[in-house]
Amino acid sequence: MPEDLSPLIAATTWWLTRAFPAGGGSLTAAVAEAQARQAVTVAAWLRYPTVMDAALVIMAGPGGSARLDRITGAHGDGAAGIEDRAWRTWVDEVVASWAVHLLTSPEAARAAVDAVGRCEHVSAGTAEFRRLTAPSAHDLAASSLLRHPDLVQPIACLHHAELLDRLTLRDPR
Fold it and tell me: For position 96, what pLDDT does the model report?
């Protein structure tokens, strides 16, 4: 049974970097992609913390980018070719929502990285998420659209409550 979340992580990262692109050339785009990948990885591990969770989502499929495309005004299904539609089916809306929230909230990013330190996915070794939790000035400049709260707010708010519940950051009142 498959347990690797890499197709989901790759597709969701690709969607984020296309929806909120970096300007400034190849190096800037690579730095922005590294940050998006770290945020998506942490979000995916939070959402699917066990090997069984990962196997089930890989078997059933994560749902695709259709709603995210509508919210951002992307043309994912209409004008896209078959190859473009294929990878979009691996995008996980909840993971994308959680990832952009992590990119805009340092407190949530640190809490999320702490939380995934206890999940089954990192048992094989330690993971390093410095670009997410302690971004440099260059990191911040490269990911200015991905980290802009007003731009990503429609995506971040989709599943915000569930993320806060998972991180236990929500006020219990």
Answer: 98
